[in-house]
C-alpha cells in the first residue's frame, strides 16, 4: 500500500499525460483504420476519395514546406496530395439543402425563419465537430494542428458527406445526413432554437390574415401576488374562443409565454408533437424538394399593408 500511495503521489506531481495523436502508438495502422471507418458506418467509400476527405489544408501546406526546406523541386516531383476543401463545399451544400427540405416537410406549418434557425443549429461547427468526433473522424485527420480544432472537425465531416455524394450519389449522402445529423434534434425543443422578438405581434398578424379577431389576453388566476413566489396564468382568446394559456412571474411574462404557446399550436410544434421520422420509417418518406414554408416576415408585411389604407399610417 505504501508503494501504491507513493506512485499515486508521483502521478499527481507529474500531472496529466500530454495528449498524443493516435498515430504515435505502435499498433496504429492508417490503412486499416480508413477501411474500418467506412465499415463501421455501413458505407462503401472509394478509398482515395475517403482519404482526401481527411486531408486538411494545413497538412498539405506543411508537407510543401518540408519539401522546400529539404530542397526538393516541387515541379519535378509534385506533391500527390489534395486537401478536402472542395469536398467540404460539396458536402455542406448537399447537407444544407437536404436539412431544409426535410424540416419543411416534417414541420409544414412552421415559419421559414424557424426552419432556418433549426438548420443553423444543426450546421454549426460545434455540432458537426461533435458528430465527427463520435463517429471516429478525429484520429484519421491529417493536420498540422493537434488537438484538432472544432472548425477542422466540422470541415472533415462536411468532406465525408461530399465524398459519399461523389461515390454513391445524392440519395445515399442524404440518408447519411438523416442518420447522423438530424437525430441531434431528439429531446430538443425546436421552439427554443428560434427566438421570436414579438410573439404577440406575430400572433395578431396571423389571426388577422386568417379572418379572426385580434388576440385578447385575459388573466385566468393568480397566486402569491404580493410575494416573491408570485404566479399568474394568462389565457389568450380570439372570437371568444380559447387559444392558449401559460404561467409567468408577472402578467406581462405570462402574456408573452401564452402568445408563444399559441404560435406553437399554429405551427404544430407543441410538446406533444409527433416524433421525427428517422431510421427505417424514413426509407419511404416522400419529400417535396420544391416546398418553401410561409415566412413570418411576409405575414407581418402583408398584415400592415392591409392595415395601412384604413389607418393612413405607414407599413412600419
Automatic annotation (TrEMBL):
Superkingdom: Eukaryota
Pfam families, per database record: DSRM_MRPL44 (PF22892), RM44_endonuclase (PF22935)
Primary location recorded for the protein, binned into one broad class: mitochondrion
Protein name: Large ribosomal subunit protein mL44
Protein localization: Mitochondrion
Listed GO CC annotations: microprocessor complex; mitochondrial large ribosomal subunit
Chaperone keyword on record: no
Segments passing through the bilayer: none
Organism in which the protein naturally occurs: Elysia marginata
Protein family: Belongs to the ribonuclease III family. Mitochondrion-specific ribosomal protein mL44 subfamily.
Residue ranges constituting the RNase III domain according to the UniProt record: 34-169
Keyword terms of this UniProt record: Mitochondrion, Ribonucleoprotein, Ribosomal protein, RNA-binding, Transit peptide
Keyword Transmembrane helix belongs to the record: no
Annotated GO MF terms: double-stranded RNA binding; ribonuclease III activity
One BP annotation, GO: RNA processing
Matching SUPFAM superfamilies: RNase III domain-like
Amino acid at each position: 500500500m505504501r508503494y501504491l500511495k507513493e506512485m499515486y503521489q508521483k502521478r499527481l506531481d507529474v500531472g496529466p499525460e500530454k495528449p498524443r495523436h493516435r498515430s504515435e502508438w505502435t499498433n496504429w495502422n492508417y490503412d486499416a483504420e480508413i477501411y474500418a471507418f467506412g465499415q463501421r458506418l455501413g458505407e462503401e467509400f472509394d478509398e482515395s476519395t475517403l482519404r482526401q476527405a481527411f486531408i486538411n489544408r494545413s497538412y498539405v501546406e506543411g508537407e510543401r514546406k518540408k519539401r522546400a526546406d529539404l530542397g526538393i523541386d516541387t515541379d519535378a516531383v509534385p506533391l500527390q496530395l489534395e486537401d478536402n476543401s472542395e469536398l467540404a463545399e460539396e458536402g455542406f451544400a448537399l447537407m444544407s439543402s437536404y436539412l431544409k427540405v426535410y424540416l419543411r416537410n416534417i414541420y409544414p406549418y412552421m415559419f421559414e425563419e424557424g426552419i432556418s434557425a433549426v438548420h443553423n443549429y444543426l450546421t454549426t461547427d460545434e455540432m458537426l465537430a461533435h458528430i465527427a468526433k463520435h463517429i471516429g473522424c478525429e484520429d484519421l485527420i491529417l493536420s498540422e494542428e493537434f488537438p484538432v480544432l472544432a472548425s477542422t472537425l466540422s470541415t472533415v465531416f462536411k468532406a465525408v458527406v461530399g465524398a459519399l455524394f461523389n461515390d454513391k450519389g445524392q440519395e445515399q449522402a442524404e440518408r447519411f445526413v438523416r442518420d447522423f445529423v438530424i437525430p441531434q434534434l431528439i429531446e430538443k425543443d425546436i421552439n427554443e432554437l428560434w427566438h421570436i422578438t414579438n410573439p404577440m405581434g406575430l400572433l395578431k398578424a396571423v389571426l388577422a390574415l386568417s379572418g379572426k379577431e385580434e388576440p385578447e389576453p385575459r388573466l385566468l388566476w393568480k397566486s402569491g401576488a404580493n410575494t416573491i413566489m408570485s404566479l399568474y396564468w394568462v389565457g389568450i382568446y380570439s372570437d371568444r374562443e380559447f387559444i392558449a394559456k401559460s404561467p409567468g412571474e408577472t402578467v406581462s411574462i405570462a402574456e408573452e409565454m401564452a402568445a408563444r404557446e399559441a404560435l406553437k399550436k399554429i405551427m404544430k410544434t407543441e410538446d406533444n408533437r409527433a416524433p421525427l421520422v428517422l431510421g427505417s420509417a424514413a426509407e419511404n418518406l416522400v419529400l417535396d424538394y420544391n416546398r418553401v414554408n410561409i415566412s413570418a416576415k411576409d405575414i407581418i408585411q402583408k398584415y400592415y399593408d392591409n392595415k395601412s389604407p384604413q389607418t393612413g399610417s405607414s407599413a412600419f
